[in-house]
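User: I'm putting together a small comparison set for a docking exercise, and I want a reference complex before I start. The sequence is below, and the ligand is 2-oxoglutaric acid. Could you produce the 3D structure with the ligand included, as structure tokens?
Assistant: Of course. I'll restate your input first, then give the structure tokens for the complex.
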Amino acid sequence: MTSFKEYRVYNLLLFIKLFAFSQWLQEQMDKITALGAFGDKKANHVLVNEYLPGQGIMPHVDGPMFYPTITTINVGSHSVLEFYTPLNSNEEMENNQNLSMRHIGSLLLEPRSLLIIQEDLYTTYLHGISQVTQDTVSQDMFNFEECKPKLGEVLTRETRISLTIRHVPKVLKTKLMLGRGR
Ligand SMILES: O=C(O)CCC(=O)C(=O)O
Ligand SMILES: [Fe+2]
């Protein structure tokens, strides 16, 4: 049984870890801001995702709610971010253009790397992560020449954590009208 004293020590350790993590995260956000990733704006939003081997994310666009730059710190396992052309017309939808026909390429996300996506890759193309447990390094990867693993190498996915850091413009100003007459 956990004593009250042990519980307090546990809570204190957790607090110290969270504090250290928030300091580290703020440093990374400041560095990304200093790169000019968001123009003259600052990073002010972080989304943490955990992916187990075989987990992914459906192709999507991040939409107009964010400044049009995605920056992602990749922690743990590698992964592969796939890019697809959008379905532009009814004709394409009727012809049921499947995902593999719309695939334009991918990026190998190496552990401890920073990914920055802007312009067309942000606004036009969809991005997603396939639900697979292994990836083969191929020429479909835009960055294969810059990466450590060599062409043809098979990489087994482990747990990956992504920290997606963005600038979210503050569009909504809520006014509290407490105690005011109508
Ligand atoms: O985890 C990633 O690298 C991608 C996440 C993503 O696309 C999103 O959260 O919108
Ligand atoms: Fe996304």
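Helices lie at 4-34, 90-94, 99-102, 119-123. The CA atoms of residues 65 and 173 lie 15 Å apart.
User: Thanks, that's exactly what I needed.
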